[in-house]
Design goal:
globular; 0% strand; disordered N terminus; mainly alpha
């Protein structure tokens, strides 16, 4: 299926929709009671339990998209201007990130200090460290890059952070990777060498993550998970997916039925990674990589299938299109809508309530995207000369 270089891929947005809905469900679950028996409640429970693992799908998709962007850079795949690349990252990430930091502080000041909201809901959304003036917290948050490691190793001192703040660990991991990624491409040189090195990086991240889980006594490091190491591998896996698809690797498996088989096997692997088919330590070690391997196969097959670009699937792709805004804004949406949502949940059921919340949060994220994120993004790119019509649009990554 021929597509213009500047077009977005709907299958990528569908993958991001699945991921962001799992993240939203995991956070929404803090505010609602455990659901009763029922088929929809089983789906809800599975979705709710995969929030952290689903973030790694974001990482994989991000690796795919960033590599696609660099492949369309003005100076080519491995010679993209560092100024051009970092301006694009800053334009996409920083405006909404900084706005949300300011918004969180403003809500704490107005609702927490002035109006005296000491409810559990406010705590879950916006709680700061035990020492709100801890410079390690604000320094790592505002510089973003070290925040994931700070959350892991200082959380025992900080206490339970509100979700509005703790979600930034994933942005930190992404930016750590992308700080060095264009330098890595320049050093590696041609696509074939880059592909080999990405495979080695995936295997190294998987090996370190598995070894760490296996050698660490369960519960001995309550604030650190070895899955953070795998997150870097997930980004590299997405980058490899783009190059494998572009270079026609495994072309002997390419056919209509071969692509559908890849999608089917991938979905089965994702189901195995997200349900209790694995037990004990193996479930902890393999669940997230299995989920990502399944998504890799599903995307590899689906990229060649026109079905996933169908206009009938467009509504399902909307959460994925606006996933960055959804990720950063959804706790504010929960806080302001919860009085009504609590009553609605009591009168209906958790699954329906979550569906209404997801639609409302997507609408807020869409407004943010079109009225704030896109204009700010374009302004930063224009300022630093990073506007380039041959690369995917601002919402691509």
């Amino acid at each position: 299926m021929e597509k213009a270089p500047s077009s977005n891929l709907q299958i990528i947005d569908l993958a991001r929709s699945l991921s962001i809905l799992a993240v939203l469900a995991s956070h929404f679950g803090y505010f609602v009671p455990e659901p009763g028996p029922g088929r929809m409640e089983v789906v809800w429970s599975v979705l709710r339990g995969q929030g952290r693992a689903a973030v790694t799908i974001f990482f994989m998709v991000s690796g795919f998209l960033i590599t696609r962007i660099l492949d369309r850079a003005p100076n080519g795949f491995s010679r993209a201007s560092l100024k051009w690349f970092y301006a694009r990252r800053a334009g996409r990430i920083l405006p909404l990130f900084l706005l949300q930091v300011f918004t969180g502080l403003a809500l704490i000041g107005v609702f927490g200090v002035v109006l005296g909201d000491h409810s559990l809901n406010f705590f879950l959304c916006f709680e700061l460290p035990r020492n709100p003036w801890d410079l390690r917290f604000w320094g790592s948050l505002l510089t973003l890059l070290p925040f994931s490691w700070a959350v892991n190793f200082l959380k025992a001192q900080w206490g339970a952070l509100g979700l509005h703040w703790s979600i930034y660990w994933s942005l930190a991991i992404e930016e750590q990777f992308y700080l060095f990624y264009p330098l890595f491409l320049r050093r590696a040189g041609d696509e074939e060498q880059v592909t080999r090195l990405l495979v080695l990086l995936v295997l190294a991240a998987l090996g370190l993550s598995c070894a760490g889980f296996w050698l660490t006594p369960l519960g001995s490091l309550p604030v650190f998970t070895w899955s953070d190491v795998w997150c870097y591998g997930a980004i590299a896996l997405g980058a490899f997916l783009y190059l494998a698809d572009k270079r026609g690797m495994f072309r002997g498996l390419r056919s209509r039925w071969g692509n559908w088989a890849a999608v089917g096997v991938g979905l089965a692997a994702m189901l195995a990674g997200s349900t209790p088919l694995l037990n004990g330590r193996w479930a902890i070690i393999l669940a997230t990589p299995l989920l990502d391997a399944g998504m890799f196969l599903a995307l590899w097959g689906g990229l060649e299938l026109p079905f996933f670009e169908s206009r009938w699937l467009k509504p399902l792709a909307l959460p994925g299109k606006y996933c960055y805004g959804l990720y950063l804004l959804h706790m504010v949406v929960i806080y302001f809508t919860w009085p009504w949502m609590a009553d609605f949940t009591a009168r209906t059921n958790v699954s329906l309530s979550f569906g209404v919340f997801a639609i409302a949060a997507t609408a807020v994220a869409a407004l943010s995207y079109h009225l704030f994120e896109m204009p700010a993004n374009r302004g930063i790119r224009r300022r630093f000369g990073a506007m380039d019509e041959s690369s995917p649009g601002p919402g691509a990554s």
